[in-house]
Amino acid sequence: MADFDWRTHRLELDDQTLREWDATVLASSPDGIVLDRSAFYPGGGGQPPDGGVLLWGGVATRIVGARKGHDLYLLPAEDDPLPLPGTAVRGALDDERRSALMRTHSALHVLCGVVFRDFGALVTGGNMEPFAARMDFNMTEVPAGFRESAQTACNREVDADRRIDVRVLPRAEAFAIPDIIRTATNLVPEGVPEVRIIDIVGLDTQADGGIHVVSTKQIGRIELTKLENKGRGFRRVRLRVRD
Hints:
It contains 4 helices and 15 strands. The chain has a 6-stranded antiparallel beta sheet. The protein has a 4-stranded antiparallel beta sheet with strand order 9-10-15-14, with helices on one face. It is elongated, with a radius of gyration of 19 Å. It folds into 2 domains: 3-93, Elongation Factor Tu (Ef-tu), domain 3, CATH 2.40.30.130; 98-242, Threonyl-tRNA Synthetase, Chain A, domain 2 (2-Layer Sandwich), CATH 3.30.980. Strand 9 (123-129) and strand 10 form a beta hairpin. It is an alpha+beta fold. The protein has helices at 11-14, 95-119, 146-159, 171-175; strands spanning 9-10, 20-29, 32-35, 37-38, 52-56, 59-68, 72-76, 88-93, 123-129, 132-137, 164-170, 194-200, 204-207, 221-231, 234-242.
């Protein structure tokens, strides 16, 4: 079942800066808690899910992750109390973790934009944790000085303080944008009527469902720490984000 059929309204897609909100429990079990409103990002596109807490009745239920299913399920810590359906709760994200992941995800988009613009390579995979990530590209040959020049170009884009816009377009309109898919394989499921677009204005525009900072300046410094040969024309670039 697609995201737009969930009972949970995904607040993080409306406001990526939101960290606390009020909600009502719709369903509850040790396997997952369903809220009517939630800002917990459930993970996807290489970005891991959020953690945080639900406050209710003078107690706290720690949320250690989230998963997608027929609803958005928040995963409670083992042995923590569970709020019953109908309970009013206050949700709160782990701000340090969320902010780090937003900065890291945006850094990957900067890297993607630079490598596509300067070297014409598409993404074949990627993954991230707070402040550390890797991205794979379909590069058969790596020019001399690639890591240094790409790192310099990435930080030039950070210093440019480029705005990072989010918009949702009808599928046909989104796919009419040139190079909207920056991965070697189109990962947007068939039948999805609307496509969420992340636009680093002037650098990179692509379909993406993740959470980002509002400008490249908020990323911090991008350090390309390692370049690995994964065989068959694939190269892996590892990066770190620093203050």
